[in-house]
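Appendix C: a fully annotated inverse folding record. The material below is reproduced so that readers can follow the format used throughout the book. The structure is listed first as tokens, followed by the designed sequence.
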């Protein structure tokens, strides 16, 4: 029985999907329990996607037109559309540019979810993405009981009304301290991190992203978070010439109880979290390959 649906929204993401599907299947303890549901937000324009879907019974696809929409709005629409089709007991929402290191990830998370309290497991937005949610998982990687989120009856649509948007824009400039609070600057300075964290507590969420309304509703339904930790390269305590340090510096790397769980490429052009090689897919995959060949203990 397929009791875990893996929901992926793709917008010309075929270069990532084959790797992601292989990765999640090979690292799974029960691969036969997995069903992939890909929402094609290009509405069929991504011709390379057909090769991935061909003759693979574990993959279903849905067409959705996300063209001409702002990126987060398009993504949210794809998630709403895909999630409405899910009937399995459990759901994993994951970005295409994710790689999971943890063996038997599915069993680990299911064991946590099957404890008494309701739980949502995954990767929050890193601390350097100032103004976003850091204490609940984001749609980058979010694993949960399907009915837990369905009962909230909220959309993944992320944005407030225009007046709130204007207010948030002003507040973001304040808490980002002009151009000071970049990922690189926050990596270097604990004092700067503490100041930004204090300002965030005062202002609240000023950069709501996909799924924000659902995340805000989860405490009302007593659904608690189990969050991975996104580490700065400095905080990995690894040497600068090691893969773990490099992947934390250029991309995003997540841990759970100090165990390496996953990485998120997220090559962004946004100044505050842009890195020199953040858009280099070959480099990211090379570091992943090196990390798979070495234990975390050897790298630190």
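Designed amino acids, in order:
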């Amino acid at each position: 029985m397929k009791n875990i649906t893996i929901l992926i929204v793709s917008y010309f993401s075929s270069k990532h999907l084959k790797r992601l599907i292989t990765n999640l299947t090979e690292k799974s303890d029960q691969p036969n329990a997995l069903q992939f549901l890909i929402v094609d937000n290009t509405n069929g324009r991504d011709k390379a996607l057909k090769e991935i879907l061909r003759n693979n019974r574990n993959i279903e696809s849905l067409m959705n037109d996300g063209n001409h929409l702002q990126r987060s709005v398009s993504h949210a629409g794809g998630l709403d559309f895909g999630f409405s089709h899910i009937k399995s007991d459990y759901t994993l929402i994951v970005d295409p540019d994710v790689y999971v290191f943890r063996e038997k990830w599915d069993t680990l998370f299911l064991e946590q979810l099957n404890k008494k309290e309701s739980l949502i497991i995954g990767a929050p937005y890193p601390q350097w993405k100032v103004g976003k949610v850091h204490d609940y998982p984001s749609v980058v990687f979010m694993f949960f009981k399907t009915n837990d989120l369905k009962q909230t009856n909220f959309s993944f649509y992320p944005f407030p009304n225009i007046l709130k948007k204007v207010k948030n824009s002003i507040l973001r400039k304040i808490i980002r301290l002009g151009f000071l609070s970049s990922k690189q600057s926050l990596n270097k300075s604990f004092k700067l991190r503490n100041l930004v964290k204090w300002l965030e507590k005062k202002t609240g969420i000023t950069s709501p992203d996909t799924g924000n309304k659902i995340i805000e509703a989860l405490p009302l339904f007593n659904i608690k978070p189990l969050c991975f930790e996104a580490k700065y390269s400095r905080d990995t305590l690894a040497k600068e010439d090691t893969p773990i340090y490099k992947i934390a510096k250029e991309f995003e790397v997540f841990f759970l109880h100090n165990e390496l769980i996953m990485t998120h490429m997220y090559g962004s052009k946004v100044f505050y979290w842009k890195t020199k090689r953040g858009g280099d897919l070959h480099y990211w995959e090379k570091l992943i390959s090196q990390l798979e060949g070495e234990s975390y203990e050897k790298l630190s």
